[in-house]
Specification:
binds N~2~-sulfamoyl-L-arginine, 9-stranded mixed sheet, binds zinc ion, 763 residues, 24% helix
Amino acid sequence: MLRSFNARVRPFLVFTIVYASIGTEPVRAEEPFDPQIVRIRIDLVPDDLRGEIDTCAIDREEGGPFAVFYLDPQRAAELTVPHERLGPLSAHIRRFLPANTLARVDIPSIRNLLGLPAPADQPQPNGPPALTLSYDVYHTLEEGHAFFQALAGAFSNIAQVVNIGTSVQNRSILALRLTANPTQPNTRQKILFTAVTHAREWATHEAVLYFAEKLCHGYGSDPRITHILDRAEVWLVSAVNPDGYAFSWSDQRMWRKNRRDNPGTSCDGIDINRNYTRGWGGPGSSGSFCNETYRGPSAGSEPETQAIQNLLAAQRFAIAVGYHTYSQLMLYSWGDTTQVAPESYSSLRAIAKKYVSIINDTTGFQYLPGQSSYTIYLTSGGFDDQAYGISGALAFTPELRPVSTAQGGFLLPEDQILPNNIENFAAALWLMDNVANALPVSNPMSPTLIESPSTSGNRFSLPATPINQKPSLALGFNNAWQSQLTTWMHDGAHNPPAYATLNTGFEGCGTGNAYVLTPTAPALAWAQGLTQYTALPHVYDNGAEILLSNVGAGVNRIGILSPRPMPLAEVRVVQRVLEFVGPNYGYREIIQESRTAVEDATNASPWLDWNWSYQPPTGAPIISHPSGAGGADLMVYPFRGYDVTVNVGSSAFSSTTVPVYLLQFPAVDLDCNRNAVADAQDIAGGFSLDCDADGIPDECEKPPCTGLIMGDLDCSGTVNGGDVQDFARRIASGAYTCQADLNGDLAVDYADVMPFIDLCLQP
Ligand code: 0X9
Ligand code: ZN
């Protein structure tokens, strides 16, 4: 099983060569120029030349081993390469190809090899530096850095270049820090996007440059971007691995690692994405210098890794995104274990699913969201595990276009750069919205997060994902009080392998888990002081889940993923399995069965016996499902710690047939009108109507406006004269509310007047 988790399977391509004409004059090859990939059997390459081959690609190839070369027939004629200018490997390839075929191996490093100028974006010799780039070509490291500098110069009100470290070969690692009033230290929430950890993944460079351009030019003109930069801080790192990136232009297009000169070997480089401290040295990394996933001599040994680790530690990003290519995936932790972190469902997966759905809405392209270890392969010492597990960020590794080797692999065709940028920027804006609209969440049932903190039975949970997920970080919990706080959650990556007290290594985000607080000072005083915490508001746009993670029969302590009470009937129990996707991926998750508690009450589940109860500080437990001696409660409440007892365990996908079980919650948006004020506060403060008292501002309800009385704009329960003035005001201002949208066209305007009058005239 592990073997298949390890393998990232890529499609087999027929060994195809595009034949070029022979001769000293460049001559166009014959049509059609369909195949663009040449694959060479690596076992035919002499040992001393193998170091020059992309062994990482080789590792992933099915039916390999092969090395992959990209041929661009469009450039064949203009790029005839004199043989003597090609390196030893190329000389070797020549043995397999007709003479002059090499002339058609066109990648930008060949452009560089030939001393040809880089195309486009050449600023005028003495003119001002370009403030926009053309995304039909790739940009060098220097161009990227110059672009950051130019933007910081031209948009100094929002942009600042920060040198966050120096590479092995003494190049600067630059970040562009974007926020209104950037020189002030501030308490805003922050988000990080990085690119070019792996040198050859050029499309990531373009994406981050594009983000920089869009954000700088959008501030002050685009209300959404203005709001983001007024309220949040966006950090962009265009090249985590500047040495490798420069080398991929100058020497070896398919270079991956940094440019560390490994002692005593001719194999250079360390894989920065195996060098992070958390989990360093674990599965999916290599101890061999020559391997493309060489983890380095020690955890965090590389200056490039340190630059990012230090940035993560110093800035405490709410969200951290490390872009890679390729495969069209949206990966999240854990990378180094197939154990499922319970919080992965309640936060990371929820975000990943929304990210890919936005991409799909934007361009129709499909990305697959999933836990890194089985969606791609096991890796340890990766960026996202560090950012999530150590620095409290919700962290992601999107693998950008294309989807497969056949579409170019690491060599994304230049005409794909812009659409790749556009779809990812659309999704990234949603991430930024979350950070900009981070808002306080409090318990509607109680002034403190814990209902009636008392000297017995203090249970609590956190609906919505707290920023800096560890309870200790999010809530100011003192780790010295650990023995007073327990949770029952089995996950090898979080707790000791038994139900246990939290330990110093606790990495959870808290959301979805419930805690029991031993009623002993000083932790009780801490609990009494807990009135609110900060959360990202849109995380559950597509709903979210909680893993029922106990092993064997036992109790899960969970909370509900909604800041408002909800009917238990809206909570589903789902059975998920892994399904092999192939040929470009590992596995995707699919729901095998799904049912509500209500269905379960009348027709017992064939696969899950479960019981859902809440123990109040005093009195008998309240059993929500099935109804019990303490009474049935068909509503479930936020901030409470429920005990959910199940007769099956699910902590990891151990095969494609062994499922995991989860509680699934419907979509909820804490700031549906995106005004950076929690919906609950909008309603309480009279800013928003909530005539049906469902906790959702009526302006966010969509036709058919379930629960609302159409035309009833003053929540009186009927349509009468009292509504006319409110209706007129809304028509004049266009302020949307569902019950005024009488024709259901998602706008409140003159087209609603006649239907409103009809409604008023009805007896
Ligand atoms: O192997 C990698 O580092 C990434 N793939 S790539 O083709 N860009 O090299 C995948 C990393 C997956 N691991 C984590 N996200 N932790
Ligand atoms: Zn990568």
